[in-house]
């Protein structure tokens, strides 16, 4: 199987006769066996000559560019290339066919509720008080979970998820136990208190993280299954983010508040609503970044992978599902 | 109206703050007003940095690369900014549904043959001799045209189009009447004579021109209808180019040869095949550019539009067809 090459260093990609090498800004060369390369993802400040691009064209290798902030910027598509038209057709097929769409949407919701349950279980075993409340909510959520297979529409699924999520958020006060961060109720655009400001900020980072990883697959972010009621934004990333928000965002919030790394001084009041200050955002993404590169033991692979990698693996699973290779099973955290 | 930039020299494309310049290999700089640029065609040995490509992405400018021999090599396609999940779903739907796909493919072929017929009619009225031959071919092509509604597969359509095109090309000798440019037969990769070299070069420019315009719509170039037997290249641009090749490329070729703007000295023989020289390419794209910004009276709009604009309007028509707003009718030139 051909490989994807990721380049994070700065330097120049060069051709030498029939081979390919990368020369970094200190002049060190790394040979890249061109016949093994499927595509190249460029994150560093990398220069290319036309001669090099012609070579990529001959070898039908796509170059994907990401800007300084890690956002996808564009692709050099050789005249002939594997352009993933087949994946996009399958994605559309699964959207157009109501049964297929419902099946995928249900899997995302199942994954989402299962992850929320894992988060609650984790805190139940550690909480100084409120275990009973957590236990009650867990019962209710497991009950909602058992209804999922019977949902007959996306709306029904969404409402079941909504019930679970409401119960789940209601426990944030039990888990956090900090008067500076009451949950009250979920408020967005704008968030009306600090905890909601954190949830909104964290979720938006989670969406863009998944989006970045989608750009590294053949999937098209525009076609989602659960979140496709309007077409004003990418939606597949919202779907897949459901699986990761509880462990990636919510647990980080609990951690940052409990460790007092974020306090009320990290928030600014605005005419309407409350937002994380610049310093607060810095702390949040700094800590998130640490977690994203943290490795967790992967159940099936039998080895440790980073959270970021976990998201990519999840997307590959969705892709396999769409291509009919293997039914998608959402990731479940073990702890 | 935004312009196409053609670069034949060797050097480097660079960004400086919010502007763009080309520095040739002797160090001379040429400022390029970025806000006026539609797309850039690179023929020379031009280097680009990632920083420059990020800038192209921000400004939504496509870069088309041609190799040393003038063959199309690939395109830097900035990240899609027009994010239209609903259009791509419709595009996929029209591909997946055999009837829908056949209908669109048929329309492209109808448009293509109708345009070839218009070109022949134009030259019939001006030819010094051979009117009879042209008339015979027109009869045959009209006959092929009448069979199109009965075609039951893409392959059948393709073969009907193939017959018409063969007859059409056979008349190039009658139209051109220049011993330096015999048609002989259609040869590609490599073209085996001068006329074929011109057709190949012109067609590849036409494909990339349509690709640049697709980028400015909600359409996805990966899903075509006529040219979608595999996903190894962009195909929607190939479909739509069928409508424009006869008027944009073939008529330009006749003009350039008849006006003796291109003669045999503008071609280089290579180990296998014959190609336009750099000077020849320069003349070709220079004249094409004039035509692309030339305005023609638009039948329905009742006003004059440029050829480039005409291509965009054609794409909007395809988009409307896909969205079920209005059945697509291919553009027909009046003269």
TrEMBL record, chains A, B:
One of its GO terms (biological process) is defense response to virus. Homodimer, forms a heterotetramer with a Cas2 homodimer. Mn(2+) binds at residues 161, 227, 242. The gene is cas1. Its EC number is 3.1.-.-. Belongs to the CRISPR-associated endonuclease Cas1 family. Its cofactor is Mg(2+); Mn(2+). InterPro entries: CRISPR-assoc_Cas1, CRISPR-assoc_Cas1_C, CRISPR-assoc_Cas1_HMARI/TNEAP, CRISPR-assoc_Cas1_N. It holds the Pfam family Cas_Cas1. One of its GO terms (molecular function) is DNA endonuclease activity. CRISPR (clustered regularly interspaced short palindromic repeat), is an adaptive immune system that provides protection against mobile genetic elements (viruses, transposable elements and conjugative plasmids). CRISPR clusters contain spacers, sequences complementary to antecedent mobile elements, and target invading nucleic acids. CRISPR clusters are transcribed and processed into CRISPR RNA (crRNA). Acts as a dsDNA endonuclease. Involved in the integration of spacer DNA into the CRISPR cassette. It comes from Texcoconibacillus texcoconensis. It comes from the Bacteria. Signal peptide: none annotated. Keywords: Antiviral defense, DNA-binding, Endonuclease, Hydrolase, Magnesium, Manganese, Metal-binding, Nuclease. This is CRISPR-associated endonuclease Cas1.
């Amino acid at each position: 199987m051909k490989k994807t090459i990721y380049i994070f260093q700065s330097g120049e990609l060069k051709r030498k006769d029939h081979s390919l090498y990368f020369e970094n800004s200190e002049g060190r060369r790394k040979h890249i066996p061109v016949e093994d390369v499927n595509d190249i993802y460029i994150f560093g400040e990398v220069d290319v000559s036309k001669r090099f691009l012609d070579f990529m064209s001959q070898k039908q290798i796509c170059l994907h560019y990401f800007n300084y902030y890690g956002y996808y910027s564009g692709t050099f598509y050789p005249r002939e290339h594997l352009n993933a038209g087949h994946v996009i057709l399958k994605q559309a097929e699964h959207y157009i066919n109501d049964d297929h769409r419902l099946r995928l949407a249900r899997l995302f919701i199942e994954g989402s509720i299962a992850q929320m349950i894992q988060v609650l279980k984790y805190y139940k075993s550690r909480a100084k008080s409120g275990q009973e409340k957590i236990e009650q909510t867990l019962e209710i959520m497991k009950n909602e979970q058992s209804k999922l297979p019977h949902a007959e529409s996306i709306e029904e699924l969404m409402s079941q998820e909504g019930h679970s999520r409401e119960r789940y958020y209601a426990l944030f006060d039990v888990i956090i136990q900090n008067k500076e961060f009451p949950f009250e109720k979920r408020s967005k655009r704008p968030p009306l208190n600090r905890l909601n400001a954190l949830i909104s900020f964290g979720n938006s980072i989670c969406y863009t993280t998944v989006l970045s990883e989608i750009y590294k697959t053949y999937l098209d972010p525009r076609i989602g299954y659960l979140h496709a009621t309007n077409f004003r934004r990418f939606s597949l990333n919202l779907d897949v983010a459901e699986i990761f928000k509880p462990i990636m965002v919510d647990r980080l919030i609990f951690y940052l508040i409990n460790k007092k790394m974020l306090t009320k001084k990290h928030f600014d009041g605005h005419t309407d609503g409350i937002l994380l200050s610049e310093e607060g955002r810095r702390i949040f993404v700094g800590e998130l970044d640490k977690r994203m590169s943290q490795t967790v033991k992967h159940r099936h692979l039998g080895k440790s992978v980073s959270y970021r990698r976990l998201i990519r693996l999840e997307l590959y699973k969705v892709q396999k599902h769409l291509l009919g290779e293997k039914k998608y099973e959402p990731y479940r955290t073990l702890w």
